[in-house]
Amino acid sequence: MTFIMTYDQRNLNNINKLAYNTKKAALQWYRYCCEQEIDLLIYETTRTLEEQARNYKSGASQTMRSYHLVGQALDFVPVKDRLAIWNGFDTPKIKNAIAKAKQLGFTWGGDWTTLVDKVHLQYEYNGYGTDPFGSVKETATAPRPIVSQTVLNIQKVVNSRYGTGLKVDGRYGPATNRALLKGYQIELNEQYKAGLMADGIWGPKTKAAVRVVKKGARGNITYILQATLYVRGFDSRGIDGIFGANTEMAVKSYQKSQNLNQDGVAGRDTWTKIFE
């Protein structure tokens, strides 16, 4: 069953208010979050001058120049059990959502140094006010999972190699992630005699058995690394089990998104962030 966000219709209504290119990027991001079962409330997109003036007067905004005024921004908050979790931006799922937004071209307010604004994403396009409204044929509707041939191939491989019984549907989500972790545990058992239960759970024993994978490595663990990065939106331009320059770049990009040391080496901290 397709995951539907708690406030799906409100979210989609707000996305529909955005300028053309911002809306397209926001829809891509929203679909990704649904596929990853990341529940969000997009509580504001466009804003009137009067609303901005009130925010400026109250101190909520520091300027009358806001990307909300030109349809190039959205504000969101994580949701759990139908409640907005205003301090929930440090969870692995939300960090992945923010990393995906940045990959799609959004600027995240949580990276700002003068006024940190974790709820805020803005799509600068070619500058302030450059994204036109109108002539938008696509309307935001309930998201449909995107079928990816690459994900289909990943699912077939993990089923063939590790007997995971994963449904081969080309849709990446938690089930695919668990199957990849199970494959990783099996590889640790076979290659390093780790004695793990291949249960698809990132527990203390699996964490303790982690192996460092870096440039020059070849084999199934490298394949799993490339696949897990791919389903999180970090494409190494080929899932071939060979740790080359592109895989190193993908690892560094992922590490940057998770505030890890950007050394391009998949060690304990990187594997933990990938699978926790």
UniProtKB/TrEMBL annotation:
Domain named Peptidoglycan binding-like: residues: 222-274
Keyword Hydrolase: yes
Domain of life: Bacteria
Principal EC category: hydrolase
Hydrolase in keyword set: yes
One Pfam assignment: Peptidase_M15_4
GO molecular function terms listed in the Swiss-Prot or TrEMBL record: hydrolase activity
Alphabetized SUPFAM superfamilies for the sequence: Hedgehog/DD-peptidase, PGBD-like
Record domain Peptidase M15C: where: 61-123
Record EC number: 3.4.-.-
Key words of the record: Hydrolase
Record-given protein name: Peptidoglycan L-alanyl-D-glutamate endopeptidase CwlK
Lineage, uppermost ranks: Bacteria, Bacillati, Bacillota, Bacilli, Bacillales
